[in-house]
Fold this protein.
Amino acid sequence: MSARPASTRSGFAPTLRAVPTLLRIGFAGVVAYRSEMIVWILTTNMPLVMLALLRAVAAEGPVGRFDAARFTAYYFATLVVRLLTSAWVVWELVYEIRQGTLAAKLLRPLSPLVPYATDNLAALPIRGALVLPIALVGVLWAGPERFTHDPLSWLAFVVSVAAAWAVTFLVMLAIGTLSLRWESSLSIYDLWIAAYFVFSGYLLPLELFPPRVLAVVRWLPFRYLLSFPVEIALGALSRREILLGLGAQLGWLAASALLAHLIWRDGLRRFAAYGG
Amino acid sequence: MTALARYARLFAIQLRTSVLLALQYRVEFVVQAIMSVFWTATALVPLLALYDRRPSIAGWSRDEALIVVGFFTALKGVLEGAIQPSLGAVVEHVRKGTLDFVLLKPVDAQFLVSTSKLDVFKGVHVLTGLGVIGWALHALGRAPGPLAIATALTLFAVGALLLYSIHLLVVALAFKVVKVDNLSFLFSSAYDAARWPSSVFRGAFAIFFTFVLPLAVMTTFPALALLGRLPARSLALALGLGVAFGLASRAAFQRALGSYTSAGG
């Protein structure tokens, strides 16, 4: 069986009508699997390990512009942004394609991409509630003066986190859909995440990298997925830099949306619902 | 035939099946090799960037820390190639109730599930790790003696045993809480901390990473042994922890088997 692209069968208005219901379903799912979600959140412990490491390093003297308190602020902000921008659609998609259950989603008069997005978004309230105490600990430990006090910057922070989530989601969607064509698409995701860990500032603040590496990072999307919002929160950027960064994020958003769209359209043509 | 010979033969058969399975997907080897080198390279970037600014961190020079990274990578190969695939399958068995077929066989269930599935190509991590260690030793201009190498290898084996035991404990938990596959993710994410020499962790972290989750024993101790700096008491501690974790996990697994009720129980 081959399926036609779902987008030809669904209008915009019916999709919009379905979104609140889908969000409710997604939220119920999150509540049902709440203990799993807590384990997932605990899995994101790398920033704390790096914080322990770099506080030990900073005890012997500051590293670049970073002293112990700045490292604390940095890694807590990193942890918060990472937890707020994470998505898991790539695993879901690869699983459903392998098992053939994607077929059921394709039969609905709604693009399957919409429930994937609402499932991920519906987790936000609970995630947010769990992230709040983490943020509070970070602010108290590092000291409030380590973060920006400019309300406009915080507004930009919210926008940039939303954009970072969207790009993460779309890239995951693109890679997941690739498994319609190629069974090892999860290997591509592994490559992506390995590069993300280094070049997004997740492991080490980007400004501590040698200039040669920074020259490369400038042309990669990873900074805009994590480090950029963190830099805003720490007050490390001027208004002009923030605006330029938001513009770059918008560019990456458009590029990843286009990529996801093309791969999805191409992949559905060859979808055969095997195994289902 | 003695029991030992029987199990050795059984192990050979299981290994052969895994190798034959892997050979069906030969391209995967190239993919895994590229992945391993890429993953190791990216993991090295932060380390090298930090050592660009500091000659030593917590008493470790760059090349000494690289030896820890080498052991970390090699052990990761054991974890992803031998431990996770087989023990991950147990969780699936429990969920589906197909563990019955394992239990019906006249062999030790723990042995059978632990050797059921080996991802041979992940072994490439072991080669990458050895490469990193070799590079670091070369940069240090040092060739460890046979005793140091033997100690390091022993500690590496203890590290593998510890990883296996901790994983088995997690699996024993799977009999109670069926959806446990992300607990093993939690464990692998914690394992990532083992790429740094354990002396960078202070206070509560240090105690946690030595006794509760003995990451220090897994990667830092073998590196120290190779550098000829491991105190005899640390070696004894490592061996003691290995035996303790091994026995505890076996007991936990046997207990869990006792409470297994088949068909998704």
